[in-house]
Amino acid sequence: MKRSYIVFFLFFITQTNFAQTFGGGFLAGISMSQLDGDSFGGFNKAGFTGGIFTNTQINKDMEIQLELRYVQKGSHSGSKDLNFYSSKLNYIELPLFLRYRIYSKLSADLGIALGYLQKSTEDKDGYGDLPADPAFNKTEFSGLAGLEYQLWKQLSVNVRYNYSILPVRDHPGEQTWYLNKGQYNSVFTITIYYQLADFRE
């Protein structure tokens, strides 16, 4: 994983030498998440996402984009009663996806993401965070889909849904049924993108 991050950073730094082909910039936004399988519904866990990206054009209507982003996931019961629960999962992610231009300023994204769990805590009674028990998997493999709207030449807003393809943790007691093999991250993000170097110029 560390080697992948180094390669990505070097690629991002040097991509300005190929401005006719590659673009890149920064991203920042919010995340709203839940943990499917923990018995608490609702996207009640708010967090932050931010990072860098690089992209290139395949043809006039299609681009490919690679990102390195930090994103906060987890879940929250939304109450302070006896059923209180909160989990905080901090990931470093590498999303890779295709972007298809639907028309003029609106595009659709579809792809995958590899995540590394940097930190995980739980609060099961409202009295403070403790290390997650049972532990969450250190890696996450997920699928993503989203829509992006270009506000100005260098600024756009993206709404994305991200869902774990493989469980991020087994159910307590390791019970499974049908396709439900454990707990899964379910996350919406709303992100602002600022394009520094643009291959569309």
The total beta strand count reads 9
Number of helices: 1
Radius of gyration: 18 Å
Q: Widest sheet: strand order?
A: 1-2-3-4-5-7-8-9
| CATH architectural grouping | Beta Barrel
Sheet with the most strands, sense and barrel status? 8 strands, antiparallel, barrel
> What pattern of helices and strands is seen along the backbone?
HEEEEEEEEE
What does this structure look like?
This protein has 201 residues and is mainly beta. It has a single domain, classed as Porin (Beta Barrel), CATH 2.40.160.20. Helix content is 6%, strand content 59%. The chain is built from 1 helix and 9 strands. Strands 1-2-3-4-5-7-8-9 form an 8-stranded antiparallel beta barrel. About 3% of the residues have low confidence.
Brief characterization of the structure:
The chain has 201 residues and is mostly beta strands. The chain has one helix at residues 2-14; strands at 22-36, 45-59, 62-76, 86-103, 106-123, 130-131, 139-150, 155-164, 184-197.
